[in-house]
Each structure stands twice: as C-alpha cells, then as structure tokens.
Amino acid sequence: MNLRLQFDITDIDWDSVVDILRTVGMANYSPELHKQAFANSYNVVFIFENKRLIGFGRAISDGAYQAAIYDVAVVPDCQGKGVGRIILDQIMRKCPDCNFILYAAPGKELFYEKQNFRKMKFGMAFFVNAEQMKLKGFTE
Predict the structure, then answer these.
(1) Helix (H/G/I), strand (E/B), else coil: 117
(2) pLDDT tens-digit map of 66-90
C-alpha cells in the first residue's frame, strides 16, 4: 500500500468523510459539522492510498493527562491491513502522557483490545439521541 498521512484538515473532502462513516455504520452528520468537529480537535489523522481517502480519526484532549478518541474509520476494503492501527498510533503519539477513552462501534471491540485498550468497569454517557444509542447497543 502506498500510504500518505495528513495531520490537518487542509483540502479534505468532507463528503468522503461522511460517506466513509456511513459505509462503516458509524454516526454521521453533515459535511460541515464533521469539518467543525475535526477543526476543533486536539489532533487529527487522515490516511490516503494514493489520492483516495481510506481512513481517519481524531482526538480531543487537555494535552496534559486526558484524551478521547473519536471517529476512527477505515474503508472496508482496507480494514485488516494495519490502517486503523496507524491511525491510533499517530493520535496517541501526539498525547504521550495521556489516558485515552473511546467508545467502539459494536463488533469492533476486539480491534481495540488488540491495541491494548480495555473495557472500563464504570462509564456513563449522555446521548442526545438516547433511545437510538440504546437500540444500537451502546447503552443499557
């Protein structure tokens, strides 16, 4: 694979971001809202194979000891090839002293466990669409 990493939002096709999130079954919003979320993040990673966007992720953080990872997505035909691991590694490298939390799409827990993430015993969430998140398996 001929991969190129990008660490800012310059010239990102936000329609492609929405398409990828939709394809992998993750929450997606308008292209403008995703641009705002990535622009306001502590760090971002986009991975291209040649000129095609194949994956991305972002973190929000205080830069001192806490961070949260969001929107890690890889196009289906590139999953299982180490792209997701590269995204996580790059995000975590920018916050070397931070604890990280994330919530995984149902069925992706094993991927994160292989990256040394562990299930938390206690965690709480407040979702705008609480019933929808319950139906998707995120909450009890």
Answers:
(1) coil
(2) 999 999 999 999 999 999 999 999 9
